Amino acid sequence: MSKTAILVESLGKRYIIGHKKQDRYISLRDTIADTAKSLSNRVLTGFRKSISNEEIEEFWALKDVSFEINQGERVGIIGRNGSGKSTLLKILSRITEPTKGRISIKGRVASLLEVGTGFHPELTGRENIYLNGAILGMSKAEIKKKFDEIVAFSEVEKFLDTPVKRYSSGMYVRLAFAVAAHLEPEILIVDEVLAVGDAQFQKKCLGKMEEVGKQGRTVLFVSHTMAAISNLCQRVIWLNKGQLEMEGQTSDVVAKYLSNQSNVTYEWHNYEKLSLENEAKITYAKVVASGNNLGGIVSFDEDFSIEIEYEITTKLEDAVVFIRLTDALGTVVLTTWDTDKTNSRGKVRHPGKYSCVCKIPGFLLKPGYYSVTIGVNIPNVRGLDRHDNIIGFEISTLGFNLSQGRLGVITPLLDWQVGLRNS
Amino acid sequence: MVNHSKTELVIEAGRTEKQYWQDLWCYRELFYFLAWRDILVRYKQTAIGMTWALIRPFLTMIVFTVVFGKLAKLPSPVGVPYQILVFAALLPWQFFAAALGECSTSVVANSNLISKIYFPRLIVPASAVIVSFVDFLISGIILLGLMAWFNFVPSWRILALPLFILIAFAASMGAGLWFAALNVKYRDFRYAVPFITQFGLYISPVGFSSSLVPEKWRFIYSLNPMVGVIDGFRWAIIGGEAKLYWPGFLLSLGLVILLLGSGIWYFRKTERTFADVI
Question: Which residue has better confidence, A77 or B242?
């Protein structure tokens, strides 16, 4: 059953960079001048090896990458910026040629490196559906057949005969994705398409991609959003500096990748001097996970806590310390006060150093990246100190035993009374 | 699985030759859509729309008739109005000039497509030429109008016109491919092309008959491939008096074929790196 769809063997792509000046394009004059220069050099040095005054630097965007993808597999590609992900996709979709190596692909490939490639602002929505469809490789008959479906998915029926330059950016993206989503290739290559649109639309896109995967098609998906990768992909390829760093089960690779990433700071110190103007100041914050703490990586099923230290210089009444969690899409998931279970009314805090710990239960936050904002304020009166997104953590898919498709921002397990009703 | 019969696609350095022409056929609909897009967009948000394709050659024709025919009093064959003499040449020339201009900028203008999607790149300049061809057909209406106005009946030679149109097509495509490919790497050609078309209007026999060129220079004059094309157009449209200078025409024809062949060769050679340098 598992036949190979894509076979990549020791693939390499070299770019020549740093042609002296880094112009975006070379002008003919420069080339002529350089040729003349190197010619005269050659004459002067008596036809010996010419001394090249050009600083040619080789840059391998991809080096010796090999992997195999089976039919019907959904594979994610992760890596930092500049790790060669996009180059890999470009080679796979035949936009650019490899310098070395060999790829063999079985089946029709459609690549989606950008939403709305080839949309023309002057054309109407209707015209653009045909144009974009053709660009993505659909035949006219195919587009005609799916036209109504595309329009329904995009929710822009009313504006079909309006030039897309008058569309709002949301409408534009919806229409563009709708066309792409109705492609029916055997192999779909997707790059970061989900980086556009609002949260709801991104969800729609993800759902559609999942559907495509379930229809037994091969999907190659590049993203920075680990949550999306975890939801969609069975296997992950991690590229680092143009080379294959790791390949394997999604949860393993993602956890390893995240722990390797230094940008998940889970500990924060405030070294600013406390002046008398500050009535309160947060001095320290840290995410503490009980289990195998891979630097801010928390299993879905595990309780963890956020530790905070703060100082107060004047006597404060009614003040609270708060924590706000924001997910990778920027949605505020929750805000909690240190007085949540007590009453803040009339509570007095005297000058001094304090520490507090907020415990966050497992089975609450969906897998994904969260950033933490911490502050001190007097509710409805004024803020005293606040630090946005100073630390973060990732809820990994480890221990995530719920349905992948469960909708909602949070996933608490609630009490249900279940019984038979005898009438 | 359905895929058993599917041919395997192999990507390797320098190996795109085999599938290329097959791909070109597979993507013929894209070719059609790109041309369709450019035609649709061409006159969007203009008040008089397609009329522009009529006005421009018409006014040029009037200017040329006045300057060359009335002021300079250059001769035209007996019984042929100067207007028709000029327009028979203006038609292919404007097609060539417009196609060359469109074609040479087409690849760069579509850089967003080139860097994001695969398709045989040859489609882009080819569809650019098609767009100019549509303009050419529209301005052909003027010729018919002129013929009706002057009661001018063409001879049987008009039947050979499609052949000359084909040559004009090949000439603009050949030159266009060269410039399109070169323009990707050297944007200098963006400035060179308008200059070439402006200059070419005067060194090609548009405003005058090429029989004015002294006999001994005639062959050398035909090194300009458009000379053959324009003479061919005149020969077919005006009939009777207009004679075809065969050695020159064959030279022009040979050059056009060479231009097209080498244009395709160079374009194919460089297109693989388009996405990297564009």
Answer: A77
Chain A CA closest to residue B43: A122
This complex has an ipTM of: 0.80
CA distance B107 to chain A (A): 13
Query: Rounded mean pLDDT of A355-376?
Result: 90
Spatial distance between the Cα atoms of B85 and B95, rounded to a whole number of angstroms: 16
Residue A263 has pLDDT above 90, yes or no: no
Contact call for residues A144 and B29 (beta carbons, < 8 A):
no
Does the CA dihedral A161-A163-A166-A168 come out positive or negative?
positive
Which chain B positions have a beta carbon within 8 Å of A71's beta carbon? Answer: 1, 3
Using CB atoms, which residue from B12, B33, B275 is nearest to A102? B12
In this complex, the residue of B36, B113, B188 whose CB is nearest that of residue A118 is: B113
Tens-digit pLDDT profile for residues A168-196: 877 888 888 888 878 888 888 888 666 55
Q: Which residues of B touch A60 (CB under 8 A)?
A: none
Per the CB < 8 Å rule, is A96 touching B275? Answer: yes
Q: Is residue B10 part of a domain?
A: no
Using the Cβ of B80 and the Cβ atoms of chain A, whether some distance falls under 8 Å is answered with no
Domain enclosing residue B75, as ranges: 17-277
The two tokens of residue A321 are 């310390």
CA A381 remoteness from chain centre: 37
Search chain B and give the residue with CA nearest A121: B41
Contact B248, B219 (CB under 8 A): yes
Burial class of residue A179 in the structure, from the number of CB atoms within 10 Å of its CB (0-12 exposed, 13-18 middle, 19+ buried):
buried
In this predicted model, what pLDDT tens digit does every residue of A200-246 receive, in sequence order?
777 777 777 778 777 888 888 888 777 778 778 889 999 988 889 88
Residue B17 touches partner A, C-beta closer than 8 Å? no
Q: Which pLDDT band, with edges at 50, 70 and 90, does A292 fall under?
A: low
Domain A60-261: give its CATH code. 3.40.50.300
Q: Can you read off the two tokens belonging to residue A383?
A: 């803020």
Fold of A264-404: Coagulation Factor XIII; Chain A, domain 1 (2.70.50)
Q: Examine the pLDDT at B92 and tell me if it is beyond 50.
A: yes
Handedness of CA B113, B119, B123, B125 (dihedral sign): positive
Which chain A residues are within 8 Å of B104, Cβ to Cβ?
Answer: none
Among A45-54, A145-154, A164-173, whose mean pLDDT is lowest?
Answer: A45-54
Whole-number pLDDT of residue A406: 79
Establish if B121 belongs to a structural domain. Answer: yes
The total of other beta-carbon atoms located within 10 Å of residue A324's CB is 17
Model confidence, pTM: 0.71
